[in-house]
Amino acid sequence: MNSLTILTLVIIAAANMAVGGCIGICGIAGFLLPMLYTGGLGFDVTYALALSFLAFLVSGIIGSFNYYKAGNLDVKMSLKLGIGSLIGAIAGVFLQSMIEKSTAKTILYLVVLFSGASILVRMWNEKRKAASAASSESSAPSDPVRSKSIADHMGFLIFLGITTGAICSLSGAGGPVLVMPLLVACGVSAKIAVGVALFDSVFIAIPACIGYLSRITWAEILGLLILIVLTHGIGVWLGSRFAGKVPVQGLKIFVAVFSVCIAIYMLI
User: pLDDT tens digits, residue range 113-158?
Assistant: First the structure.
């Protein structure tokens, strides 16, 4: 890590901007960053997670702020979920220090594989539900009521936060790719679920970022950290600006298929 080439820095900057753009558009793709660092650039797992969660902190703050301005962030639900995620993230960082590096990589690749596959399954389900809803529009307005009831179940949200927070901080998954579909499955509307998941990723990223950065000599790569913050932040900002002009479904399919293929290749 002491002698990063210009090409490596360019790859890191471009990847953070591209992934940030995807997050700004559709709220997913963060899990590709630790995959790039470990599988593509050969970084140590701890370094990869430290760099990744620094980016997730940036995208979580910017993304959730944009969703809040658009009225698509349930703050009460987010705070309840965030309490659990904070606890889970601390536990995940602690658990990661107790396992072998090769095992940590395998967990990362399996989570990426699951994340990509879950995106495809969720899109198929959404398409199927949209087709059935077209024939019975009277059932559509049930979302807001169910969303409110989920927000009132503090125990459930804290448990969900602890579980997903631990998995995300241990494996390097950003958070939204796991939290968002679970919230939708519980009856939360898709837009609210993305906003809540992005805000929740901040609660996961803070302890994970502190924990992993404390294990490396981050002062030696301060320039790289600044580069990541800037490029990822620009990517998220641009993505959120052009969110309505980009075919979101096509982007999701590309990210999902790419993730599944890369994860399978790395596992093999």
Answer: 877 787 788 778 777 877 776 666 554 454 444 445 565 688 889 9
CA distance 85 to 157: 9
Residue partners of 136: CB distance under 8 A and separation at least 6: none
Residue 116 is encoded by which pair of tokens? 């990509």
Nearest of 48, 28, 107, 52 to residue 266 by alpha carbon: 107
Query: Residue 42 region, left (φ>0) first, then alpha (ψ -120 to 50), else beta?
Result: left
Element (H, E) at 107: helix 101-135
User: Cα 103 to chain center, whole Å?
Assistant: 21
Cα–Cα distance for residue pair 68/235, rounded to 1 Å: 19
- How does pLDDT run across 49-102, given as a tens digit for each residue? 999 999 999 999 998 888 888 888 899 999 999 999 999 999 999 998 888 877
Which stretches of 2-128 are assigned E, i.e. beta strand? none
Q: Give pTM, 2 decimals.
A: 0.81
Looking only at Cα atoms, what is the longest distance across the chain?
A: 62
Q: Are 89 and 207 in contact (CB under 8 A)?
A: yes
State whether residue 177 is helix, strand or coil: helix
- Nearest 5°: the CA angle 191, 209, 111 is 60
Q: Which two tokens stand for residue 60?
A: 């979580």
Q: What is the pLDDT of residues 232-244, one digit of tens each?
A: 999 988 887 776 6
